[in-house]
Amino acid sequence: SARRRMFPSVRVKVKGLEPLKQYYIAIDVVPVDSKRYRYVYHSSQWMVAGNTDHSCITPRLYIHPDSPCSGETWMRQIISFDRVKLTNNEMDDKGHIILQSMHKYKPRVHVIAQDSRFDLAQIQSLPAEGVQSFSFQETEFTTVTAYQNQQITKLKIDRNPFAKGFRDPGRNRGVLDGLLETYPWRSPLALDFKAFGADSQGGSSSSSPVTSSGG
Amino acid sequence: SARRRMFPSVRVKVKGLEPLKQYYIAIDVVPVDSKRYRYVYHSSQWMVAGNTDHSCITPRLYIHPDSPCSGETWMRQIISFDRVKLTNNEMDDKGHIILQSMHKYKPRVHVIAQDSRFDLAQIQSLPAEGVQSFSFQETEFTTVTAYQNQQITKLKIDRNPFAKGFRDPGRNRGVLDGLLETYPWRSPLALDFKAFGADSQGGSSSSSPVTSSGG
DNA sequence: CTTTTAACACCTAGGTGTAAAATT
DNA sequence: AATTTTACACCTAGGTGTTAAAAG
Questions:
Q1: Is residue A63 less than 8 Å (CB to CB) from chain B?
Q2: Are residues A176 and A153 in contact, defined by beta-carbon separation less than 8 angstroms?
Q3: DSSP label of A160
């Protein structure tokens, strides 16, 4: 029943909003498939290890704490979801995002136009209209309770300020640098409402008790 | 240009709200008079030391972070304003409550019925209707940048968790106990919407670089 | 002289991976 | 054997009164 922050966090830039209109921006995390995975150490790969039915659960929505906010303000800043918390506790009552361990997931970002018809700050699920949703291939991740991949561990230690105590000022740095070259998202992800499509340019996203999928 | 939390913080209990209706609850701090004060140490008293015109400033509103919320939820819990921050910086751009040092002030609590006509989460000033305001005589305080009254200092050290490092486990305890007997607010203040009046029963309220008024 | 500012040691509060223990 | 939980040392982040220096 652990609950930890998602790290790296999802960070997005938005353009094409109406400056004076009010928007909510939210994130949720949806299953990529219905498979359960296990990590095969000697081949450094995630392998299918069973099936899971996710169809009866609706994902929880994390509303960005700045919501609601004008399109102008949203577009002026990088929108960071660094306080999102994940848990594997299905009975969680703190509103955190509930995921099953050893499964693949992908975050989605939702931009919701304010509408006086629904209760704006009490949103528990997505409204039927006035929503645009985006997701990014490179933010896919696999959930774990213990790290399987030492490269991910090193990346987390080096990039997460709260893990500074585990940093080795010595030669580990080279290993991390190598991983970062292949780490797809370094700068904020980009959402363009004029194009109405997901234009990814890198950024950061993943989760806490989590390793990336590929090996 | 200091900005510190208000301590003790204002804590209220509410009754008489409509359970299913949505409300904002907010606090602001208004001048008690137009006088500037100085503390006369030998007589342990605040004396008038000048005049100030507060008429051209509208006080800033601090909206309780749980807002908006149903009447049922508001009534079920103690409503604590322990994150309110005060500053003497008139140019403050962080939204903190701006006060002048060496003046007397009194907090006000506002209960605001949700209304689709105004932009609910962007409230900068009080709406013209649908608001009920309460204040409590015993929460009056005088602002300072350095404590004038050693009893207040001792009370803060003993009651504020963040000041634990200054606590003296020895004989100071007796002094504080004596002050607490005369300290008027120990339990949450009470707002009754059926009576539409301020029914005070003690509680806690004051401010950060602040001493109480009386000697 | 009175009042304010800034640096400081000392706290609370909470986010890390780790390693051992517990669970399945 | 694989996975999860728990206690832990070590961090970040930020709230205290104190003190000396600065400002008025």
A1: no
A2: no
A3: -
Pick the residue from chain B with its C-alpha nearest to A120.
B120
pTM of the complete model: 0.81
For chain A, the straight-line distance linking the first and the last C-alpha, in angstroms and rounded, comes to 27
Radius of gyration, alpha carbons of chain A: 18
A11 touches strand C (CB under 7 A): no
Q: How far apart are CA B21 and CA A133, in angstroms?
A: 31
Q: Does A123 touch chain B (CB under 8 A)?
A: no
Please name which of A104, A115, A169, A160 lies closest in space to residue A137, comparing C-alpha atoms.
A104
pLDDT by residue for chain B (215 residues), tens digit each? 789 999 999 999 999 999 999 899 999 999 999 999 999 988 888 999 999 999 989 999 999 998 888 999 999 999 999 999 999 999 999 999 999 999 999 999 999 998 766 655 566 778 877 889 999 988 999 999 999 988 889 889 999 999 999 998 654 444 455 555 555 566 777 777 654 432 222 233 333 344 333 32
- Asked if A121 lies within 8 A of B116 by C-beta distance, the reply is no
Contacts for A145 with CB less than 8 Å, ≥ 6 apart: A2, A88, A101, A209
Query: Testing the interface with B: which of A25, A115, A120 to mutate, by most B Cβ within 10 A?
Result: A120
Tell me whether residues A121 and B121 touch, CB distance under 8 A. yes
Strand C reaches within 7 A of the A162 CB: yes
